Every structure is written in C-alpha cells, then in structure tokens.
Amino acid sequence: QVQLVESGGGLVQAGSSLRLSCAASGRTVSSSAMGWFRQAPGKEREFVAGISWSGISYADSVKGRFTISRDNAKNTMYLQMNSLKPEDTAVYYCAAAPKYPGAVVASLRGYDYWGQGTQVTVSS
After folding, report:
1. Cα separations (Å) of 116 from 18, 40, 49, 103, 119?
2. Which residues are bridge partners to 57 per DSSP?
3. For residue 69, what are the CA distances in angstroms to 9, 109, 114?
4. Is 1 within 8 Å of 24 (Cβ atoms)?
5. What tens digit of pLDDT does each residue of 38-78 get?
6. Phi, psi of 46 (to 5 degrees)
C-alpha cells in the first residue's frame, strides 16, 4: 500500500513559478515509477511528467517549463513549474506505479496509487 500527499498548489499570475511536492509513505519513491497528472474542469485527466530510475518524460505542453524530480532520502517527488500559463490551471495529482519501477509510465491505467490532488490556478 502506498499513500501519496500532494502540496504546493495555489493561485499565481501568468509567468510565475510553483513547486509541487508529493510525499510518499508505505513504499519508497525510488522503487516505483512516479508521475504527475492534471485535470482541468470539463477535461480528462492528462499526463504531465513521469520519472523512474530509467529516465524522465514530459508532455509536449510542459517541456522546457516543468521539471520533475525526486528526493529518495525524503521519499518525495517534486514538480517545478516555471513560466506558468492560464492553460496550466488544473488539479494536479501525483501517482505511483510500483509494478513498473524501471519504466516511465504515461498512461493513467498504469498507476495503482493516487494522491488527493492540489489545485493550481494561473491568472492572466
């Protein structure tokens, strides 16, 4: 069993930065594929970024602006978001896929554990 708790969301202006955190318990982040997803009102949940020991992947919409990382000692994953745009407004979720420790997983169906989400609102 894995428990995930996101934090760091908020209301910011376009061009600002935020850093989201995802604290994990029950299993180490280093032994799981981890990912960030987001869901805007009226839209499906979409992949933002993923990380495993084999690599990192980003959605095209956030490449060059967002950076995913993890601190194994703190058992925490991060999403550094720079140059935020109004279209980045969404609830952001972290997820864990312990059955794929060496793969970067972009599909929602690959993840077994989800956090409760944190709201990010970017005003223009």
Report:
1. 18, 15, 17, 23, 10
2. 50
3. 17, 22, 17
4. no
5. 999 999 999 999 999 999 999 999 999 999 999 999 999 99
6. -130, 155
